[in-house]
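User: My instructor asked us to take a sequence, write out its structure as tokens, and then describe one feature of it. I'm not sure where to start. Here is the sequence I was given:
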Amino acid sequence: MLISFPETLELGVASAATQIEGGNQNNSWYEWYQKGRIKDNADPSVANMHYERYAEDAQLMGGMGIRHYRLGLEWARLEPKPGQFDETAFAHYRDELLLLIELGIKPLLTLHHFTNPLWFERMGAFSNASCVGIYLRFVSKVVDELGDIVSEYITINEPNVYATSGYFFGEWPPGQKSLTKTLRVMGNMCECHLRAYRLIHEKRRNMGFSDTRVSYAHHMRVFVPMNEKNLWHRLGARLMRRLFQTSVSSAFLTGRGGFPLRRMRGIKRGIYCDFHAVNYYSRTAAAGLGAGFLPGVPVNDLGWEIYPEGIAQCARELYALAKLPIYITENGTCDSADAFRSRYIYEHLKVLIESGLPVERYYHWCFTDNFEWAEGFSARFGIVHVDYATQKRTIKRSGEFFSKMIREGGVSEALYNEYCDTDYNVK
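Assistant: Let's start with the prediction itself. The structure tokens for your sequence are:
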């Protein structure tokens, strides 16, 4: 075998509610679509129609041998108006979760994944100081309704991406460009996570459960200077890493604020994660305060560098802060022709296994092609192809590879030659 999976490592797939479900127009991303801000004008209220077809998708997942699934809830469905919860929507998610469990698939439930109910968005969402109590009200209701069947939670997905994309670069809703608001949003989201961590543990403990695991999903990158000899580039790489990444790592894990995030009032220092949740895709090159990618490197369809070594570098960075189990909660690549995805997956898994780090889960992003935020349907990350005109699902060659890896417990030379012996694009 070229790589053998340790008994402690299990493979799964990931998705986000707004990106696959369809059928909801009460959220911030549908409003963003209405404003014409999606690259190919893709409609998130259609997406993959997963809300209707969840049983088909779950059966497909189970048939591929997948036993772990990170999925999200659409907050806008569950709380369509402030403090008013939709019991029918909760019953729907309960049915979906029970089906997954029946099929032998363990859910990892994401509570916030980039999308807000419109009423929350219009009051300023996480830039409003009252967001903490509002978010905790939602979390409390979720655990009340689903806590008896779900033991693992992601409180917030990629707070650094949510904050910078929506409040600094203005490329995502609400489309603002304010460093002050960006930092306020990250600070408020940090407090939301810290308090939700304690709340989820407390509520499930009162239910009689002791197997609760909670974390937040941290988007991590390797930052390098575009030109190693340029002092401004080196300083830029260090500053970006601090602003975007290491400040978040420390604050969300320990409750200890530090530049540029504020100190959390009323929060005791401690450990507020039961595992490190790493979302990793690429390496970023800094040219002063500008960011891009190094020349002459392998890239995916979006021009992101393919840099497998970085996944272990980022995981090791978190592990140095606290010796916790590691979940790779997202890792994947935009490859619309499915030409090199299998090789990408293999090389990242190989780096993780050889790192010696206690990696317990690897969730591939994503299961099916989906609504890829501002890129719409134009960027395909799935191991299952979706024909958006007919909603037909077809397992890709990378999906066959993923399934065979699980069945064989690793990658043999024959499996590599069949699926991974391909070339990357080069920038």
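For the description part of your assignment, you could build on this observation: The first strand starts at residue 3 and ends at 4. Try explaining in your own words what that tells you about the chain.
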